[in-house]
Fold this protein.
Amino acid sequence: MKGNDRIIAKLNDLLSDELTAINQYMVHSEMCANWRYVDLHKADEKRAIDEMKHAEKLIGRILFLEGSPTVSKYGKINIGAGVETQVANDHASEDGAVKSYNDGIKLAVETGDNGTRELLESILKDEESHIDFLESQADQIKQIGIQNYLAQQMKGE
């Protein structure tokens, strides 16, 4: 089915964001694994896998709309040197994703593409869940301090 060019372009922009997030979250995950912050490593890895699933769905939709998925375009990957910076950088990425998915949903409504709208709404819910998790981590760091927070992250070992 031939899709709207603006929709395909937006889907490719979203795909670029997802591919960027995958890389950022995997590096953060492996850094946490190296520091033996087992629980945080697992959480970051799960979030990266969620983003991989989003990328897969976006690629599928682009192909369905007879577009060409662009898998070689990445945004700036913001690697944090420490956990606090990682949480802040990941939150900023997710915040940008929520805004971008909302823009995509508006465009899908405007162009009458309900299939794309439904896909983007389902991914948006995941991105909002990621923000909720990251905000709770930032709140814990603020409330109990970074040292106590990091001590809790080792418990899964």
